[in-house]
Design a protein that fits this description.
alpha/beta, Rossmann fold, GMP Synthetase, Chain A, domain 3, 7-stranded mixed β-sheet, 5-stranded parallel β-sheet, 21 helices, 30 strands, 21% strand, globular
């Protein structure tokens, strides 16, 4: 933890009780939710055991609920056995084989409806394809695909045979893929020739080939799906054509029962050091979290058409595309393209076209579409919507109100969800038939989630609207099980500040007089760009890898669309010139890490604010980037005058 929590002076007095029409038709009534809270408060582990027995189909029932003997390495339902793909597919077939599982709309507007029976058959065929290449239980598989149904098929196919998947966002570059392959020691990569996004061709196979050109000795097979229909190079000794391979396989593949603690997937998330963290989740606990939150937060029922606009490359796409909705047997929309292509009304046209009832998106997207004007949503009939959700970062009250008024027609509750890659599922959020919401607040913790706010000494912050460290004080089933290959980093990162039962989220938060939480920002060195957490050290490492750069400090500053924009302060090598270098460095970072990590602004400087021990004081750098008045103590700096110099250079 590098920064102390921050306080906030923002006040928001508007409140919105659940609309009575929503309460009257809700799948989860206020009485149901009260019972959940009461049960969780009276018996934490017993509550989760009841949920696990109710929501999951077990091949071998569990008798052990929580093993905390080696905290913080918690184990849930460890002697139970199940299969995630079975819970997402097989168990639905007797009643909803012909029900649409995925309504897929491509970038070009083509629509495909995939039933649960079809999704089952596709998953089995690809699972058999993996087995034919000797991929099996415990093997790691990298998935580098667009946001298309084949990505869900690949994930469920891995789960079906007990392989561990690691999805890499399709916008990441070759070095980023290479790092993740090598850390996971992946035996296979699943990719596509390419795809079109916003009308632009993205060549995925070419990027994978570049990644595999250096190292990556663990990879034996590359499966290639023909999405774009472009010419690509196929290595006959390594590459497998997806369509040709699955055509030879059976539509039946027995699910492999794994113990509840068997890793389901690894997902790499940025941290405060240069090396990405391979967060991994268990099978039973993670799946339980996604199902419960789909039922509780989204109030999902059989008649809903659910749409989470995230990409499967992020945890939101894992939990609320691949696993949660499918495990709940709900019809969902999946979209390959971008919100503004070919026109800024693309999302609203899709809501109308597909009859979406529950819509879940990021504040970044809301702000971007809000700037386009009300005319675009007003072109479309959005009355199918009954619930709206936000994810990825705090939503500012102005955007919340626009979302509520223009998109929801002042009739749809908004669930502003706080959670993380590490938590696996929602932790703090409104419950739509139950919670009186307040713009900018994530409301209260869910049943069974013991969120709290602590000061630096570990004492509970009792004062209303005072900031502190956001923590979870008891283990929960969907929590991460570790950092792949680095248990001590897991212990130090998440449980090193207070004790081995207190999970430290890395966010600052405050709680109002009614007990509602508001997230204030990160306390570690992470920039949140368009809802994507990027480690500043990763970007700094990429910059310093350039021959002209000696040192760099990266921070975030507020951005009215992206949430945060990346600002880089760069010290050049002695003989380097800053002339025309800023654009070159921005493209350099994009090539190293992906376009999402490209700095919005690069400032060249002769020095950085450092302590006498050499530590960069990023809080000061952040204040300079934002143009804030410097109120922090600068007496500990090696050169106290450097702050004024940086401020002068910024004007």
């Amino acid at each position: 933890m590098t920064d102390s929590p921050i306080d906030s002076v923002l006040e928001e007095s508007r409140t919105f009780p659940p609309p009575q029409h929503f309460v009257d038709s809700a799948n989860q009534t206020p009485a149901d939710i009260n019972q959940l809270y009461d049960a969780a408060a009276s018996d934490h582990t017993g509550f989760w055991a009841t949920q696990a027995r109710h929501h999951l189909d077990w091949h071998q029932p569990f008798s052990s609920v929580l093993n905390a003997s080696d905290a913080p390495f918690f184990r849930w339902f460890e002697d139970g056995e199940l299969n995630a793909a079975y819970n997402c597919l097989d168990r639905h077939l007797p009643e909803r084989a012909d029900q649409t599982a995925i309504i897929f709309e491509g970038d070009d507007g083509q629509v495909e409806n995939i039933t649960f029976q079809d999704l089952f058959a596709r998953t089995c065929r690809f699972a058999n394809t993996l087995k034919a290449s000797n991929i099996g239980k415990g093997d790691r598989v990298i998935i580098y695909l667009p946001n298309i149904p084949q990505a869900v098929v690949a994930m469920l196919a891995c789960a079906r045979i007990g392989a561990i998947h690691s999805v890499v966002f399709g916008g990441f570059s070759a070095p980023a893929i290479r790092d993740r392959i090598n850390d996971a020691e992946a035996r296979a990569v699943i990719t596509a020739d390419g795809n079109y996004r916003g009308g632009k061709l993205i060549q995925l196979k070419k990027t994978v080939d570049e990644a595999l050109a250096e190292g990556c000795d663990s990879v034996e097979t590359v499966f290639v799906y023909r999405r774009a229909g472009i010419d690509i190079d196929l290595n006959s000794a390594r590459d497998v054509d997806w369509d040709k391979a699955v055509a030879e396989q059976s539509t039946q593949c027995p699910p492999v029962a794994v113990d509840s603690e068997h890793p389901l997937f690894i997902l790499y998330t940025s941290g405060s050091t240069g090396r990405p963290k391979g967060i991994y989740h268990s099978t039973g606990g993670y799946l339980l979290g996604t199902i419960c939150t789909c039922r509780w937060t989204f109030d999902l029922g059989e008649r809903d058409i659910f749409w989470c606009t995230a990409d499967v490359g992020w945890v939101t796409g894992h939990s609320y595309i691949a696993y949660g909705p499918t495990a709940c047997g709900v019809t969902q929309v999946m979209f390959e393209g971008v919100p503004t292509y070919p026109e800024p009304d693309r999302l609203w046209a899709m809501v109308e076209r597909h009859g979406v009832s529950v819509f879940y998106t990021a504040p970044t997207g809301i702000r971007a579409l809000m700037r386009q004007g009300d005319e675009y949503p007003e072109r479309h009939d959005l009355t199918s919507l009954r619930l709206l959700g936000t994810v990825g970062e705090p939503i500012n009250p102005e955007a919340w109100m626009w979302y509520y008024r223009v998109i929801g027609g002042e009739r749809c509750p908004i669930v502003d969800t706080w959670w993380q890659t590490e938590t696996g599922a929602h932790m703090i959020t409104a419950l739509p038939s139950y919670t009186t919401t307040r713009p900018g607040s994530v409301s209260k913790p869910l049943p069974g989630i013991s969120a709290d706010i602590l000061d630096e000494s570990g004492e509970r912050v009792e004062t209303a609207n005072a900031g502190g460290y956001l923590v979870i004080r008891q283990p929960w089933p969907s929590m991460l099980r570790g950092i792949w290959g680095d248990p001590e980093r897991y212990r130090e990162t998440y449980f090193g500040l207070f004790d081995s039962f207190t999970y430290v989220a890395g966010d600052s938060a405050q709680r109002d007089a009614d007990g509602n939480f508001r997230i204030l920002g990160r306390t570690d060195d992470v920039v949140n760009v368009s809802g994507h957490r990027l480690g500043t050290m990763e970007v700094e490492s990429a910059l310093v890898a350039h021959k002209s750069v000696s040192e760099a400090a990266v921070v975030g500053r507020p951005h009215d669309v992206k949430g945060e924009a990346i600002v880089a302060f760069v010290i050049l090598q002695a003989n380097a010139s800053a002339d025309n270098l800023a654009d070159e460095l921005r493209e350099w970072v994009s090539k190293q890490l992906g376009a999402i990590a490209k700095p919005e602004e690069i400032r060249f400087t002769d020095g950085l604010p450092k302590t006498r021990s050499g530590k960069i004081m990023r809080r000061l750098v952040r204040s300079v980037a934002r143009g804030d008045e410097i109120t922090q103590d600068t007496s500990t700096l090696e050169n106290p005058q450097i702050v004024k110099q940086l401020q002068a250079e910024g004007h």
